[in-house]
């Protein structure tokens, strides 16, 4: 499944996405195993490979196995099962690595097996809140039902930020960004502006919200396209009642192009 993204991609606006289904085999106390089903957007995957030879990294973060070379790029190898708290077998020769490429970062994630690629409609992607407890939702952005199984779509941005904070977008601080004017007059102007932020990743959504709010903007957040549509329609009703143009209530929308119920 190497170079998977070079041959199979969906275009933005088709209301479809493709995910790679992969598995972790959870070791149970009685010695048996239970298959845990996970997924990742194909667009984030560079390739899937056998476990490469790795080199230990000094002062590595927990769950970081080491580093390896992926197309001449030094790439961290993350023990995904360890981060998720899923006990699995340790025989690396039978495992695989998903090499991801997004946010200008390349990372490898250790998994037990690869299943297949699914092309699905965003309408079939469900919120994790109805399946998981509040704490568990932090690393799952969506759930897909396939062949009687629940496939958990993981928030890899959050995982990377947790394992290697030095590479995280969370380190960005608008207060020390000299390109952003934070004088009282500009902040006052932004206080009159409202921006809607729509993203299925709670981590990304919170990051954007904090940055905009720190700059002085009023922020409305939505976890998917459906919630954004509902809030937008509500604003339209308010605008009608007050005989105002909608742009008086909402100035801009910052959104991922593809997400559940978009």
From TrEMBL:
Keywords from the named record: Phosphoprotein
Residues bearing the modification 4-aspartylphosphate: 256
Annotated ranges, domain Response regulatory: 194-262
PANTHER family: CHEMOTAXIS PROTEIN CHEV (PTHR47233:SF3)
Protein origin, superkingdom: Bacteria
Name of the protein in its database record: Chemotaxis protein CheV
DNA damage as UniProt keyword: no
InterPro entries: Chemotax_regulator_CheV (IPR024181), CheW-like_dom_sf (IPR036061), CheW-lke_dom (IPR002545), CheY-like_superfamily (IPR011006), Sig_transdc_resp-reg_receiver (IPR001789)
SMART domains hit by this protein: CheW
Species, as recorded: Vibrio parahaemolyticus
Residue stretches making up the CheW-like domain: 16-165
Alphabetical list of Gene3D superfamilies matching this protein: 3.40.50.2300, CheA-289, Domain 4 (2.40.50.180), SH3 Domains (2.30.30.40)
Keyword Phosphoprotein (UniProt): yes
């Amino acid at each position: 499944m190497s170079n998977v993204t070079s041959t199979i991609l969906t275009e933005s606006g088709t209301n479809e996405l493709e995910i790679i289904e992969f598995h972790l085999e959870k070791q149970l106390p009685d010695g048996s195993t239970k298959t845990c089903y996970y997924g990742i957007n194909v667009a984030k995957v560079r390739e899937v490979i056998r476990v490469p030879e790795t080199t230990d990294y000094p002062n590595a973060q927990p769950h970081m196995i080491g580093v390896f070379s992926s197309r001449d790029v030094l790439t961290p190898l993350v023990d995904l099962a360890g981060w998720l708290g899923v006990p699995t077998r340790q025989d690396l020769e039978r495992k695989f690595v998903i090499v991801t490429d997004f946010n200008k970062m390349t990372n490898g994630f250790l998994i037990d097996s690869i299943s297949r690629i699914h092309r699905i409609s965003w309408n079939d992607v469900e919120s994790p809140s109805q399946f998981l407890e509040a704490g568990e939702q932090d690393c799952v952005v969506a759930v897909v039902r396939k062949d009687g199984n629940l496939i958990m779509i993981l928030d890899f941005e959050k995982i990377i930020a947790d394992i290697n904070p030095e590479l995280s977008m969370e380190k960005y601080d608008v207060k020390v960004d000299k390109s952003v004017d934070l004088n009282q007059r500009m902040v006052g102007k932004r206080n009159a502006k409202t921006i809607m932020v729509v993203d299925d990743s709670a981590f990304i959504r919170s990051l954007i919200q904090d940055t905009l709010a720190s700059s002085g903007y009023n922020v409305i957040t939505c976890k998917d396209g459906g919630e954004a549509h509902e809030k937008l329609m509500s604003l339209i009703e308010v605008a009608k009642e007050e005989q105002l143009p909608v742009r008086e209530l909402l100035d801009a929308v910052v959104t991922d192009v593809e997400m559940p119920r978009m």
